[in-house]
């Protein structure tokens, strides 16, 4: 289940299909423990494989028979965490008020009629804290689950003004606390569980203000984080985490909030939990990891986004459950053949060639300076061979020294741009001064990056390698060990241009002088006036400077340059096209497809169509943009587009972005 916000900033829940089972060998499924929402109804259905809520007017009747009271006593005897006598007294008192009192209140809650509720209690002696339906629901449970903020505030006000009237402050606090912590009969959910599931922060605060227990767990061990994960509520996850709840806490079946998020198809919750580095490979009692559950969820989500996000965050493909099934063994249960094929591809064991980053690696990758070291090593080797061997043994210094200096200068410029691109900030989004909890409360969670705790801009993306959001993200380049963004894009273009130019010149000059030999190093040294370029070669053994040796070194130069010149040219061509269109590689080639029409999730496709291996797009949680991709419109003027890409590198202030969004709403 995913969530979205209306224009007023209110989180709305999308109805989902009934939860599917993960039964094997007669074991119970996840849905027996959890909360779910279907077609705006609420009920308990304990004789099936799911627990759902449905409206049921008859269940609200409080005219209890002796048999019903006996049933309640038996149910309560099993509940060690509840004051049974107080609870039975509540039921009896409510019953003797007459069936119309409680039935009327719960019917008004169904109708969401705040004024009618207030008028009813204004003219009634009913104690609102004693009202329960046959399932043990209080009015707080219903209002919290349905997200009725104004009504919940009114109910608490009524309790404070009427039910607690005349009580000492200590007794008043105790009575409200007991009311807030009443649990349902069957599954023992508190009102705070309901509020964390519905995602209404104001209701959560109201309940906590009257001493609702934030550490409460239901009979299956589900705490607030588990229900928030089921409800796809990013703010609730962040809030209860900040209050000290363990993000890796387990229920009675060993399931963590990430297990529940994957099972419930809560894409937003998955991305936020992954940002907090949860125990991603933790198995539950059946040995199922979150990746197992995410693979199962593909059938309903119609996308592999959660699976990709888990893999990029480090989920293991090799963990087996209790019946020896790996995640890849579950793909046969996916109906769509295209999705099955995609899952088979991404869940197979990564190739050893993935270290070359020829395509987006679906595994956890961190910045590694080895690519730069590798590049600089071969750069130095190539130039050393050229200037200390090929040029002295081929060219006459008196006629070609300008070419030597020119080629050397171009190589040095390319090296300097490489170092600059590697070291400069590519355009990382900086945290605003506003607290992240405030951002979550005021803005759609899909607008925020949970790792960086920043507001996403239309052209920013989160790079899981750099672990930062980058403004005008183009791609992550392993050769510079850095992202290419708004601050270093033009420098990257210059690096590509001068590197390509130097390779072309090396091949051209080597080809033009392929049959030229100038093997007398002593004469060359004297002719150059003692230039260092010829000083070192004259001390080499004469056997190194033979026609055969020089010939094969020239062949090696051709091969070495040829390996890099074509892919580098393609990359340069792509970047030139990008500049002419005022777009980035990410905007032109990434494939982003919504899971469902009008869906608004923040886990996006991690795949991107790259022209060559130097383009590495990693967007976790990808993370983390609405599925509608931003594509800037080209004004058709190539020169002005290039000017914009080269010269406009100003980044919007995060605090200004926040104020703009708040003012819009």
From TrEMBL:
- What SMART domains would the database entry show? ANK
A Pfam family cross-referenced in the UniProt record is Ank_2
Q: What class of enzyme is it?
A: transferase
Recorded hits in Gene3D superfamilies, A to Z, give: Ankyrin repeat-containing domain
- Domain Palmitoyltransferase DHHC span(s) in chain numbering: 446-590
- Has keyword Zinc? no
Q: Which InterPro entries match?
A: Ankyrin_rpt, Ankyrin_rpt-contain_sf, Palmitoyltrfase_DHHC
- Say if the entry is tagged with keyword Amino-acid biosynthesis: no
Kindly give the membrane topology term recorded for this protein.
Multi-pass membrane protein
**Alphabetized GO MF terms:** protein-cysteine S-palmitoyltransferase activity
Reported EC number(s) for this entry are 2.3.1.225
Which UniProt keyword terms apply here? Acyltransferase, ANK repeat, Membrane, Repeat, Transferase, Transmembrane, Transmembrane helix
Q: Compositional bias (Polar residues) at which positions?
A: 1-10, 31-61
- What are the ranges of the ANK repeats? 187-219, 253-285, 286-322
Residues of the region (Disordered) are 1-61
Chief subcellular site? membrane
Which residue ranges does UniProt annotate as crossing the membrane?
372-391, 403-424, 492-512, 551-574
Q: What catalytic activity does the UniProt entry give for this protein? A: L-cysteinyl-[protein] + hexadecanoyl-CoA = S-hexadecanoyl-L-cysteinyl-[protein] + CoA
Q: Name one cellular component (GO) term.
A: membrane
Q: Where in the cell is it found?
A: Membrane
State the family it belongs to. Belongs to the DHHC palmitoyltransferase family.
Per the entry's comment, what about the domains? The DHHC domain is required for palmitoyltransferase activity.
Instruction: Give the protein name, as stated in the record.
Output: Palmitoyltransferase
Organism, as annotated: Euplotes crassus
